[in-house]
Amino acid sequence: MDNSVFRTLRPLGAGLRALLALTLLTGVLYPLAVTGAAQALLPGRANGSEVRADGRTAGSALIGQSYDLPSGGSGEEARPDLRWFQGRPREGLGTNSLNTRYDLLVSGASNLAADNPVLVRRVRAARAAVVRDNSVPGHPVDPAAVPADAVTSSGSGLDPHISPAYAALQAPRVALRNDLPLARVRELVGRHTEGRTLGFIGEPRVNVLALNIALRGLVAEADR
Predict the structure, then answer these.
(1) What whole-number distance in Å separates Cα of residue 217 and Cα of residue 56?
(2) Which of 173, 168, 137, 176 is nearest to 150 (CA)?
């Protein structure tokens, strides 16, 4: 064989062997090792932090859900189902406009400045709705007491948590709508209030999905 051809093919062969070895290492062995370790050590988080109820997956502890009444169609805006605790507003969410074969929800923020007139109108409208929906006999809601997370969305629009203050504000309305003692509902909120991570990171919070699953159990227990 011509030496020049041999010199050309030799590094090519070495490159192909390196490609195969690295593909096996980083494309097969490493993903298998990471997946195996995740399933062994943190199976819940590895599988998307699923929340199960009544033998089925109810959602993820990391993604907020809507609790709305069935839409009447014809472009009618969905209204919240006031039997349930409500999460944060979902401003910034959009729908997939490229691959329309799938009904996808696109998360994101509104990216509006704090003094933007559109955002100011949204916040005022959201505060008025919170006051209207949650004011029940004996427990009127003071507009000044409405917490910020009740009228603003998170950066993703899919925050699964609300503040304990917002959960407490909703408790009288939830108790009335479900014919439950207010003390039991407040106790439920207290049990589902999570503290700061490691005691100092973030703020206390309540996972709305977990709280509503527990609420459904409380309602079922009261109906027996």
Answers:
(1) 15
(2) 168
Q: Cα separation of 40 and 43, whole Å?
A: 6
Q: What is the pLDDT along the chain (224 residues), one digit of tens a residue?
A: 556 666 777 788 888 999 999 999 999 999 999 998 888 887 878 788 888 887 788 888 888 888 988 876 555 677 899 999 999 998 766 666 666 666 666 777 778 888 899 999 999 999 999 999 999 999 999 999 999 999 998 888 789 999 999 999 999 999 999 999 999 999 999 999 999 998 899 999 999 999 999 999 999 988 87
**Cα Rg for the chain, rounded, in angstroms?**
25
Q: What is the pTM of this model?
A: 0.80
How far apart are alpha carbons 62 and 60 in whole angstroms? 5
Element (H, E) at 161: strand 161-162
Rounded CA gap, 111 and 160, in Å?
20
DSSP state of 59: E
